[in-house]
Specification:
Length: 270
């Protein structure tokens, strides 16, 4: 509760600062609803092949670089019965700051720092809640071929000292990524070109998190490689984004199985 109060205070202060700078920008954001055929998070299969619906709201605070996001994950009923969906509804609250360093240079660096609170809202006494503090970097101008390298590092830890999570749940995660926008002729009559976002990320889990199915704490090892492709299709006031993902799992403590899943989201800006 104390940490939540600190987070709430920080949100209020940052929002107030945003209003003070309202002449420099406007409050804007996006409302999004996504469906994923599997809920995979940090390599973990959260509910053992079951689907999830994930609505979210993202707020850009007046162009200050600060943003707020609330994402909910509601478990579906498909998949196996090895992991119960009881009390598995989770809300993710994210406070972030983004900026670009060395603009105009080949080594221009996009930076994003974030704090995330993972709230299992149906669990008593917040016993399964966790927190994450991380920073990510990407270099969009570094490679002439258009490949964008990135790196994200975060620390995960139990939200409460009396948590039901394992005492050695806290740890670090390192994500090394590559992205590329593949442009093709448009797939719709009014679309001159279609952009497919290709991505690959190798993940080193330095002992962070617990396998929801087995209760095993993650090893200190390369856990998985995540491959993905997505594209955006304008429709009405918003945008559809279909996506497919494949996870090459390398550490059984995180996930003993390779995973394939799809997602579909619809986002409306405001």
């Amino acid at each position: 509760m104390k940490k939540k109060a600190i987070l709430l205070t920080a949100v209020i202060l940052l929002t107030t600062a945003g209003f003070a700078q309202a002449q420099e920008g406007e409050l804007s954001g996006t409302v999004d609803v996504s469906y994923v055929s599997k809920w995979i998070w940090r390599g973990f299969d959260m509910i053992d092949d079951k689907a999830a619906v994930q609505p979210s709201v993202d707020l850009d605070l007046f162009g200050t670089g600060f943003s707020l996001n609330v994402l909910a994950s509601y478990a579906g009923s498909s998949g196996t019965s090895d992991v119960s969906t009881v009390n598995m509804t989770r809300y993710d609250y994210t406070l972030a700051y983004s900026c670009t360093l060395f603009e105009g240079e080949t080594y221009a660096t996009d930076v994003r720092a974030n704090f995330i609170y993972y709230d299992f809202i149906d669990e008593p006494d917040k016993a399964a809640d966790a927190e994450e503090l991380g920073v990510g970097f990407s270099w969009p101008e570094l490679c002439p071929a258009g490949i964008v390298p990135s790196y994200y590092v975060c620390k995960l830890w139990n939200a409460r000292s009396s948590s039901d999570l394992a005492s050695d749940y806290p740890g670090w995660i390192h994500i090394f990524g590559l992205g590329y926008d593949l442009k093709t002729p448009g797939i719709l009559p009014d679309t001159p070109e279609q952009v497919f976002n290709l991505s690959a990320a190798a993940v080193y889990n330095d002992g962070a998190g617990v396998n929801p199915k087995t209760g095993a704490v993650a090893d200190h090892d390369w856990s998985h490689i995540l491959w993905g492709v997505s594209t955006e299709i304008e429709a009405g006031p918003g945008t559809f984004t279909p996506a497919v993902y494949y996870q090459t799992s390398m550490d059984d403590s995180v996930n003993p199985e390779d995973e394939f899943w799809a997602g579909l989201s619809y986002a409306i800006p405001f």
